[in-house]
Prior knowledge:
Helix content: under 10%
Low-confidence stretches: none
Strand order of the largest sheet: 1-2-4-5-3
Amino acid sequence: MTGTTSEPRNATITYPGGLRARWRWGGSGSAAAVFALSEAGGTLNDLGPRISDDPDALCRAELRLEGPRGAWTTRFASAIHDEPRATYVDTAGLLVVSYGFHTFGLDAATGEARWEHRSATPLIAQFGSPRLPHVLIQSELETFALENDGAVAWRIAHSDVVTSAELFGGRLILTGFDGQLNAIDPVTGRPIG
């Protein structure tokens, strides 16, 4: 029996300041297909070797960002099939990217990693807002807030697996595997009753 490889997925996202991002990502061993349409020009940063000695055997993702200051491409690797997420923090010139177990703070002008944070469990959501002093990262078993320099502002461990998260009405609403809802203050990380 032969396996089938699905085509890589694509997404285009625009950010304030005239930034246009194009994502392409695929499953394990799909690096050749993911990178087949790589665009020329600008710098190329490959963060895959930070994750594995053989990153192309893992799931791969590629981000191409073009803006007024030029263009760059950054590649990522993940041990699990995941959809990459990104939040642009314009005041810091930072693009925060989550993929698999890792979150990177990329310089929005060059695509180079300023910092990296690794979670013990897969990342399921990421939130940013001009009203927050940090970006919220949700994994299956913990919520953490990362500041613009990559420092952890606060962290909460959960006793149940978190299956979904929403930032709604000034609250971070978490749904557990058992169906229970929990509300967290996104600024402080404290539970809201």
